[in-house]
Write a structure and sequence with these properties.
The structure is a single chain. By secondary structure, this protein is α+β, with helices and mostly antiparallel strands. The chain folds into 4 domains: 100 residues, SH3 type barrels; 117 residues, no CATH class; 260 residues, von Willebrand factor, type A domain (Rossmann fold, 3-Layer(aba) Sandwich), CATH 3.40.50.410; 138 residues, no CATH class. Helices cover 32% and strands 21% of the residues. The protein contains 15 helices and 25 strands. The strands form 8 sheets. The chain has a 6-stranded mixed sheet with strand order 15-14-13-16-17-20, sandwiched between helices. Strands 6-5-4-1-7 form a 5-stranded antiparallel sheet, with no helix packed on it. Helix 6 links the parallel strand 16 and strand 17. Helix 6 packs parallel to helix 15 and helix 11 runs antiparallel to helix 15. It is globular, with a radius of gyration of 27 Å.
């Protein structure tokens, strides 16, 4: 069955004495709390060593540690489910395993990567790794797939159904890790615990699709807005005739450009229709959409403002298949553009959509005006990157010369195919073809339709595996795995993620934002850059003595105290924190500005992630707060 975490730990506290209503900190740390994982059979008591009735604990629950005690030679830990001082009781220490780091495993789609084996015995797996014994590993996998683990070092295998950790949060905490070589590639031996807590979605939970149009509503877009309205009227008639009104819904967001630059534009982004309304309501609301009466400043617009509005303001609950269709004739304002309202570059926006499980498509109207402005090449490059789906390709469709008829034909073909997918879902997905067949167009549009069909097929299979499978991640404790596969060691077989609390992400955003500000100033006045960073480090660091010791010109940001405790010691190399500041001074102005833009993109992504409440998991079942968590990929750290 699908999984959910029980808890995570760590939040900032002052560097002074430990407060009685706060958890204990890890040895040598000033702000990182101790955590333990309850083993199967654990039970809470009201007092250490007490004889009061015990309360059983859900296996693998993760607690904060508030106090440790020894009663008659037996160690006990006082624990609570959150860091706010609410105590749940006492656990015997042997019923709780220390979890010092915030790392967790995210399993990849077994349709794309071979399934991972989980070993009971570390030494048995280590021998296979040291001998690079791909043949034995493959044989053990075949046996595990067949259900034969008798007299085998393998305790279980990753489920054959894909569980997306961003849609259905689970926790497989990494208790320890060792660097190893898998073939010629650096890998890790991971000691993990499995945490099954939440039941799967019921099998009769309907497969529903939500499609939101994000449309440019500037002066030049009137004919395309009108054609979209006409097509959607026909689409809704087909949906209602087929009895699919409860299986698919459409929404619409309009975007323009900076109202700071041109106030008469009225809005930068606005929701005209949410997914929660009926077809009649959608068409009525869409009729209110009109083009702007004044021109924007420059040719590029702010489509990422529209996409961010779709992420944050559209109600996506209950929609398994999620799409946005961006329609525009202009390129995007990127994060380093002063008129960008989001501060996100294309990579950051793509990640924000992916975090929400939304697939972006782009219909790019290559109008003569855009050609005159020499915008087409830039726009196409960004939109292809924005709409790329791994193993399928870019969901980008150009409309040459901005031809309204060609635009209408392309949009109608896409809507027909989405409707066919929803119809297939309503009929129980029978039959499921190995290769999608419902492609009617020719040329580039046919290629696009093939991608749409493949994506739809993958989503439907994912849904079937989730709703129909009777297993989730294997319910094991203290197992071992490798994060690369012998058959293709260049690719990681699992994602290693770090559980950050919302407070920690806010802190990381603030630190990185201030580094960006100093870097921008340093690019203009290099002679004062190091002094500015040292001065700032003395303010934000929890160890001023270490800052003083690292005051030399060759110090890195980490040595100056910018590295936060919750990302120290993680198995990744920080491009930002490990930057040697003397190297910075030797860079050209172009290299410095490229580095600053990269930091700007991460800052904007952290801000968007922090503000998207739908992505955060409150492990105590309450509302989203500072202790709520998100499994951030290691690669997304600074």
């Amino acid at each position: 069955m699908p999984l959910i975490a029980a808890c995570f730990a760590a939040a900032a506290v002052d560097a002074g004495a430990q407060q009685p209503d706060r958890p204990l900190t890890l040895e040598g740390k000033r702000a990182l709390y101790q955590r333990v994982i309850a083993v199967p059979g654990a039970a809470l008591s009201d007092a250490p060593g007490g004889t009061a009735a015990s309360q059983p604990v859900t296996p693998f629950t993760v607690f904060y540690v508030y106090e440790r005690d020894n009663v008659e030679g037996r160690d006990w830990v006082q624990v609570g489910i959150d860091s706010n001082g609410e105590i749940d009781g006492w656990l015997p220490a042997e019923q709780a395993i220390d979890w010092r780091q915030t790392l967790t495993v995210g399993f990849k789609d077994p349709a794309e990567q071979p399934r991972v084996l989980l070993f009971e015995d570390r030494d048995a797996l280590r021998r296979l790794v040291d001998q690079n014994d791909a043949e034995t590993y493959a044989g053990l996998r075949e046996r595990a797939i067949a259900g034969d683990v008798a007299d085998s070092p393998v305790a279980a295998i990753q489920p054959d159904g894909f569980i997306d950790i961003r849609r259905n949060f689970y926790l497989v905490p990494i208790l320890s890790h060792e660097d190893v070589l898998i073939g010629d590639h650096q890998g890790r031996l991971l000691q993990v615990a499995s945490v099954p807590l939440r039941d799967p979605a019921p099998a009769d939970d309907p497969y529903r699709a939500g499609i939101v149009f994000v449309i440019d509503t500037t002066v030049s877009m009137r004919p395309y807005i009108d054609r979209t309205r006409e097509i959607m009227r026909d689409v809704y008639e087909q949906i209602e005739t087929a009895g699919l009104a409860d299986k698919v819904a459409y929404g619409l967001v309009g975007f323009r450009d900076s109202t700071q630059a041109v106030p008469d534009l009225d809005y930068e982004a606005r929701v005209f229709a949410d997914l929660t309304g009926s077809g009649e309501q959608f068409l009525s609301q869409v009729s209110a959409v009109s083009e702007a009466q004044v021109s924007s400043q420059g040719f590029n617009e702010d489509p990422y403002a529209g996409l961010q509005e779709a992420i944050e303001s559209i109600n996506w609950d209950g929609y398994f298949a999620r799409y946005v269709i961006l329609i525009t004739d202009a390129g995007p304002r990127l994060g380093d553009d002063p008129l960008s309202s989001t501060g996100l570059d294309t990579a950051g926006m793509r990640q924000a959509l992916e975090d929400q499980g939304i697939a972006p498509w782009v219909i790019h109207l290559k109008t003569p005006v855009g050609e005159t402005e020499q915008d087409h090449e830039f726009a196409e490059s960004e939109y292809r990157a924005l709409s790329r789906v791994e193993d399928i390709g870019a969901f980008y469709h150009p409309v040459e010369a901005g031809d309204v008829g060609d635009f209408g034909a392309a949009l109608a073909a896409m809507m027909d195919q989405l409707t066919a997918q929803v119809r297939a879902a309503a009929q129980g997905f029978q039959p499921l073809q190995a290769m999608p067949q419902n492609v009617s167009a020719e040329g580039e549009l046919a290629t696009f339709q093939q991608k749409v069909a493949r994506l739809g097929y993958a989503l439907r299979m994912d849904y079937l595996q989730r709703s129909g499978a009777d297993e989730g991640a294997p319910a094991l404790f203290n197992a071992w795995m490798i994060d690369r596969d012998f058959s293709d060691p260049a690719e990681r077989s699992v994602d290693v993620r770090v559980l950050l609390t919302r407070d920690q992400l806010s802190d990381l955003h603030e630190v990185l934002q201030r580094v960006v500000e100093r870097a921008e100033e340093g690019a203009l006045a290099p002679q004062s850059f190091l002094d500015e960073l040292r001065s700032l480090a003395a303010i934000i660091s929890r160890d001023p003595e270490a800052v003083e010791a690292a005051a030399g010109g060759g110090a890195s940001l980490a040595e100056l105290g910018y590295m936060r405790e919750y990302i120290e010691g993680l198995p990744y190399r920080s491009e930002v924190m490990n930057l040697d500041l003397s190297t910075w001074q030797q860079w050209s102005a172009q290299q410095q500005f490229e580095f600053i833009n990269q930091l700007d993109g991460k800052v904007a992504y952290y801000r968007a992630l922090h503000d998207n409440l739908d992505l955060w998991v409150s492990l105590d079942g309450g509302p989203v707060d500072g202790d709520s968590v998100y499994p951030l990929l290691l690669e997304a750290l600074p």
